[in-house]
Amino acid sequence: MNQSNQAQQQKAMLESEHSRAEGLKHEKAGNYPQAIECFQKALTLCPGSYNAWINMGVVLIKAQQYKAAEEAFRKVLKFSPDDTVALNNLGYVLLHSNPQEAENIFKRYLELKPRDVQAQYNYSIALQQNDKSAQALDILEQLVAQTSPQPIILNNTGLLAFNVKNDADTAVTHITHALSLQPDLMMGWYNLAMIVAKRQFILNDEHKRLIGMNDLGDDANETATRLLEKARDLGLPIE
Fold it and tell me: pTM above 0.85?
C-alpha cells in the first residue's frame, strides 16, 4: 500500500471513529434515528468496524428494529464466530422472532461465558417459548440458589414453580420476595393474584409484610381482587 492510500485509509478510519462517537452521544440522549445515521456513516467509511457494527445492533434493538439488529450482529459473527457480545445480543433479538435459534445461540454463548446470569435468564425464556418449561425452571432455581436474583428472575421462578410443579408455596415465596424488591413489578402482582385465586391461597403475615399489605384478611378472593387492583394501577389492562 502506497503512502497516498495509507493516508486515505487513515483519514477514513478517523472520520469513521468520529461518526461513531457522535452516534454514541445521540444514543445516550435517546435520539436513536440520529444515532443510527451516524453509525451507518461510520460503517460506510469503514465497513469492517467491529465497534460500529456492535453499536449499530444495540441501538437498533433500542429502536425496536429487531430484524435490522439481527443482521448487524450476524455481520459481526461472520468474521468473529465466537464473539460473545454479538452472540448474546443476537440471542436476545431472536427471542422476538425465532426462539428455537435463540435457544441454540444462548446455549453456545453460555459454553463461552457460563456465569452470565442475564444470559442464563434469557436462555430460560427461550426454553419456555420452546415448551421446555421444566428445563427453564431448573435453570432459574439454580440462579435463585446461587445468586442474589433480580426481581424478574424471582417472579418467573415462582410462576414456573406453580405452572410446572403446582407448588403454590414456593411460588408465593418467590413472588412476594420479588415484589418486596420491586413494588412496581406489574406482572408480579398479577401472577400473585392468579395463584391466590386459583388455589384459594391464604397469604401469611410474612407474605403480607413483604408486599406492604398487612391489612389483608383471610378471604382469598378478596385478596386476589386487591392484588389485581395493584396490577391495574401499574398499567396492566384488566377488564
Answer: yes
